Amino acid sequence: MTNKPLVIVTRKLPDAIETRMRELFNTELNLDDTPMSPAQLADAVKRADIIVPTLTDRLDSRIISQAGPQLKLIANFGTGVDHIDVDTALQRGIAVTNTPGVLTEDTADMTMALILAVPRRLAEGVDSLRAGEWKGWSPTWLLGHRIYGKRLGIVGMGRIGQAVARRAKAFGLQIHYHNRRRVGEDIEDALEATYWESLDQMLARMDIISVNCPHTPATFHLLSARRLKLLQPHAYVVNTARGEIIDENALTRMLVAEELAGAGLDVFEHEPAVNPKLLNLPNVVLLPHMGSATIEGRIDMGEKVIINIKTFVDGHTPPDRVIPSML
Ligand code: DGY
To answer: What pLDDT is recorded for position 134?
Structure first.
């Protein structure tokens, strides 16, 4: 690869990152930020030495198989890589990197915000004030539920799950978790966390569920219609991971039927589409995939992308190489 590889960036990134990328590489930017169509993505992989996609670009096997022989790296701007067919990329000798770690705290903050917002009816309070409906303090108006002392079940105890647990513990929640692998005793002790090997059994006993695992073929609809039915009617569901992990239609049906107390969702199964029935439910707080949306976080993500590319171009193994068995 030449010293100045052609790097095609699919979306607008923070200015400081774009400037640095232009200094280091032969960089093609997407200044108007319109997501690329499949045809534009196919054209990009035909020409680029390195492509920098985001979660809005579907790099499936059909697109990746059109890549020119010069494409050597997919340096994803983001942690989740469920929009990239990593196996096909690797089979074609294309390395894949992502940006883990730098959005952990921001995403955990947003998770905690939803864990607080839904049971305490924050959105309803804001809406009624804005609508001029507030007649003054009342002993019985807009009563939510106490967070302190409730049981939080975290699905996925990786970096983000643990960061959520640290926050939740400080709020007096009891920490429970389900994970493919049990975490170390030191972590469990520090978080006073209870491990549930059986997700079904955990779901049936929690007050709040927080989804914090990656979306992989194994976690697609992990919270299926059957599993959602295991939840108690007073339970809340919070998801800041990926919409595909929950059967969104089944969740919506249960919320409409008041078989669940509420939900806080930052992610959706068919983004940017949102099930229209969710939009008008009072006991639901919906956010437009904002978990990592801080200036600091997005700059850190961009810096990670640059380090991954620079290391790769210099002939070394990039620090954030995606290895399918680790997902
Ligand atoms: C990611 O990096 O995968 C996040 O979902 C972006 O917010």
So the answer is: 97
**Cα(74)–Cα(280) distance, rounded to whole angstroms?**
39
The finding on whether 302 has its CB within 6 A of some atom of ligand 1 is: no
Catalytic annotation, residues: 242, 271, 289
The closest-lying atom of ligand 1 relative to the alpha carbon of residue 78 is: 2
80 CA from centroid of ligand 1 (Å): 6
C-alpha span between 99 and 321 (Å, rounded)? 9
Mean pLDDT of 213-220: 97
Spatial distance between the Cα atoms of 28 and 51, rounded to a whole number of angstroms? 10
What topology does CATH give the domain 104-286? Answer: Rossmann fold (3.40.50)
Atom 7 in ligand 1: residue holding the nearest Cα: 292
What is 6-102+294-326's CATH superfamily?
NAD(P)-binding Rossmann-like Domain (3.40.50.720)
Measured between alpha carbons, how far is 234 from 275 in angstroms, rounded to an integer?
22
Q: Given pLDDT bands bounded at 50, 70 and 90, which one contains residue 327?
A: confident
Q: What is the percent of the chain with per-residue pLDDT over 90, rounded to a whole number?
A: 98
Q: Using pLDDT thresholds of 50, 70 and 90, give the confidence band for residue 1.
A: low
Residue with the smallest CA separation from ligand 1 atom 2 is 78
Residue intervals of the chain classified under CATH 3.40.50.720 are 6-102+294-326, 104-286
The answer on pLDDT for 12 being more than 60 is: yes
155-165 pLDDT per residue, tens: 999 999 999 99
Alpha-carbon span 56 to 188, nearest angstrom:
35
Choosing from 82, 84, 99, 103 the residue with most ligand 1 atoms within 8 A of its CB, the one to mutate for a pocket test is 103
Q: How far is the CA of 113 from the centre of ligand 1 (A)?
A: 17
